[in-house]
Amino acid sequence: MARGTLRIFLGAAPGAGTTYVALREARGLLAEGRDVVVGVAAVHGRHKTLQLLEGLNTVPPRLVQDAGGPRETELDVEAVLDRKPDVAVVDDFAHVNAPGSRNGRRWQDVEELLAAGIDVLSTLNVQQLASLKDVVAAITEGPPPVTVPDEVVRRADHIELVDISPALLRQRLADGKIHPRNMVDAALANEYRLGNLFALREIALIWLADRVDEGLAAYRQSQGITATWPARERVVVGLTGGPEDGVLIRRAARILSRVNGGELLAVHVRGTRARPETSEQALDVQRRLVTDLGGTCHTVSGDDPAQSLLEFARSVNATQIVIGASPGRLWSRILGMGAGPRIARESGDIDVHLVSQPQARHGLPRPAPAALSRARTTAGYILAVVFPILATAVLSLGPDLNLATQALVHLTAVLAVAFIGGLWPAVLAAVLGSLLLNYFETDPVGTFNISDPQNVFALLVFLGAAVAVSLVVGLSERQTREAVRARAEAATLADLARDALLADDTVAGFLDKARETFQVQSAGLYTRSGDRRTGWELQAFSGDAAPPSPDAATAMTDNVERADPQTALVLSGRTLTAGDRLLLTAHGAHLLLLRQHHALQRTLRSTTKLAEGNSVRTAILRAVSHDLRTPLAGIKLAVTALRRQNRRLPEEVQAEMLATIESYTERLDALISNLLDMSRISSGSAAPHTAPVTWRDAIEDALRGIPTERIRIELAANMPAVDADMGMLERVIANIVENALKYAPGSDVAIVGVSGVSNAADDAGTPFGELRIVDHGQGVPAAAVVEMFQPFQRLDDAPEGLGIGLGLAVAKGFTDAMGGELVPEPTPGGGLTMVIRLPLSTGRYIPSPRREAGTSTR
N or C: which end of the chain has fewer CB within 10 A? Predict the structure, then answer.
């Protein structure tokens, strides 16, 4: 069956005429021959709206009642489904149904109608959209209205804006067409103020424009259209990670401030070759600035930044691009081959803004951060002066050394300086070495003049080789340090992942690990709802005190990692370095995955529980079809015989048949009780009401109706009370005793209780009280102990006359629900001992009014 279509008439405020337009559309469809019914229409006594209802078929509403009597009328979903019209009018899409209704919300009623192939006309006000709830409440200064999730509204096939000017809407209110006349003055002075209505109207137009834009993007993608359609102003900002990006972002925001409904998109092109001017820390700050200005951030990959930026701009149908006037290389600027001119040349119909910044006036890019420590650099500069002088002094002692040999010695000194101090000390050593060679070793000696052109060439080659070697050594040293740092970060993340998998897979354990890794005083997890206006809430923290919230931590932005818009990891105690900041980003991603893993685990547990409940229900149906028929058949046979031959049967036969009926009835009652108990356990509704209970009281009630000839009760006089639900504990004891009597037919069953505390305790150290039910039957093999507690299990495929195999399953379910344990143990000499352990009571026990029986034997 094809799904029905949903048309929503959207208004800026109550009274905009959405119900009137929906009914007018319904009458138009009726005139076209469509079968139209009205399920719900809130006319509020409006004369023109009532006129539209005339001639339309109406489904009478359903009266919903609760404990206090009639409450209100709601949409009769079942009646509409039975009627099966082509179109149904269901007013007020966001309405909350009365308790006892078929669904909690009216949009859920509409979903049922759509699934049945019925087209639906409905109405909605813009303040009833969940994403706009806080915005509208701030404008109107009124209580937040009932809302409906945006994704539900977006699924509508058609959304039509019912537009009305604020002045006309206020006139309708003043004429009494929206609220009763005694409420008009208050409404005009509050939520229907002219400014409020203008703001709500603009919000409705913008929200609907976003939906139209989504449809436009889907159409362009499906048709493969890459040309820019300037349907909406979109400004793309190219981020480089440099200090000038903040200027670009603010310039783009000023451009968008001149239009309404524009969109700001910031994009960073990440290439395979890292650029030294790119700062991840600066990028994070710039991304937060974009988010605060209402924009979105994106990252694309590509070795050609200009081409990648243009491809992204075309993919989002951008109208303008804002980039910095990058200084670039001198020949690039002269020939017009820089990224800015190229983007402007190839942008086509997209406007390009080249913004100059103070940083762009410098001819050279910012140098890369130093790879060596300050101590090593200082030592390098000192040795850059000492080594060339020392090499010259040593060479002066050697007889008749040629220039090539002396140059190689000085080159060795340059290499030593490069290994110790890096690039610039090595360059200094190379220049100083070449000057010393020129002064002391080349003719004429004692001057800086060179008579032989070959010596000039040799000195230039020496200087070039020394600088080249210095560059290679410095680059190698920097890459080595980066590799060491990357290896350390990878090892840290590997330890984090291993600890999460093998040890503490909790958020608290993760925060402890993060605090230890970064050596901070505290680490905290903050979350908030999907609305960015909602404040942050602390979910967990590690340390003596919680760190400040992300909004309050503006002075320590480097210590805040926003894993996603709703999740933030905050550290407090010291300011992180740039290397630590990269590691913190990885920790944020790991924290997000950890929370998603926990959510999946909860879903898996819920799904597993539903599957178990489904299997139990299936087994119950099998039990009803087999085991429950036996006592029913016996009862029916005996009753039929008594009715037909009552006068001809001897009294002893009649008594025997009545006894049979009674026996089968008791058996049927026990079977149904176990089935109901198992259903409660499988559905999770077995909630115990614990109170201090003595074993003796529970045993007395549990053994009522059970033959006691083979039962011995051996209870110590001073057994402590336990925390238990009296009804559940009675069922546990009764089921275990009945099971023992069935499967140990030639043995007595002993109920043994001793004074004192069980050796077992739970994880919190709570002591247990213990009761043992002992039989000397055939026992249970060790391999079958786990299966013994599964529903509908019988020992060795016992005949159906011994029950349906729910007794022990119910007993264990109730024991677990009360926070206890049910443990099977082999009885010495053969048989099975069931041990019931329950937490000892810490409350005051109130004796039962029943007579306290002493130790006895039954």
Answer: N
Render pLDDT for 694-711 as a digit per residue (tens, 0 to 9).
Answer: 998 889 888 876 778 889
Taking the C-alpha atoms of residue 511 and residue 504, their distance in angstroms, rounded to an integer, is 11
> 342-396 pLDDT, tens per residue?
888 888 778 888 887 654 433 333 444 445 667 878 888 898 888 888 888 887 7
Mean pLDDT (whole number) for 325-347: 60
DSSP track, 97-136: PPTTSSSSBHHHHHHHHHHTT-EEEEEEEGGGBGGGHHHH
CB neighbours of 194 closer than 8 A, spacing ≥ 6?
Answer: 166, 167, 170
- CA–CA distance, 283 with 279 (Å, rounded to integer): 6
Residues 265 and 252: their CA atoms lie apart, in Å, by 9
Taking the C-alpha atoms of residue 312 and residue 300, their distance in angstroms, rounded to an integer, is 8
The alpha carbon dihedral of 370, 374, 380, 382 has a sign of: positive
Instruction: List phi, psi (to 5°) of 142.
Output: -115, 175
Please tell me whether residue 445 adopts helix, strand or coil conformation.
Answer: coil
String of DSSP letters for 216-264: HHHHHHHHT--S--TTS-EEEEEE-SSTTHHHHHHHHHHHHTTSSS-EE
Angle among Cα 570, 571, 572 to the nearest 5 degrees reads: 125
Cα–Cα distances in Å, from 394 out to 348, 442, 459, 603, 734? Answer: 68, 17, 19, 79, 105
Amino acid (1-letter code) at residue 189: A
List the beta bridge partners of residue 296.
265
Q: Which two tokens stand for residue 492?
A: 């840290």
| CB burial readout 424-436, b (16+ within 10 A) else e | bbbbbbbbbbbeb
The enclosing H or E element of 78 equals helix 77-83
The residue type found at 419 is F
Give the position of tokens 């336990």.
722
Crossing angle of the two packed helices 374-396 and 403-421, in degrees rounded to 10: 160
Which pLDDT belongs to residue 38? 92
**Mean per-residue pLDDT for 231-254?**
80
CA of residue 676 relative to chain centroid, distance:
36
**DSSP classification of residue 547:** P
Cα–Cα distance measured from residue 44 to residue 42, given in angstroms and rounded to the nearest whole number: 6
Contact between 236 and 312 (Cβ < 8 Å): yes
CA angle 618, 621, 627 (to 5 degrees): 130
Q: What is the DSSP letter of 527?
A: E
**352, 358, 360, 364: CA torsion to nearest 10:** -170
Rounded (10°) angle between helices 695-702 and 726-743: 60
| pLDDT, average across residues 624-637 | 67
* Order of strands, sheet of 560-564, starting from the edge strand that comes earlier in the sequence: 537-543, 522-527, 567-572, 560-564
Residue with the two structure tokens 């229409």? 41
Q: What local confidence, expressed as pLDDT, does residue 113 receive?
A: 92
Alpha carbon distance 244, 692 (integer Å):
72
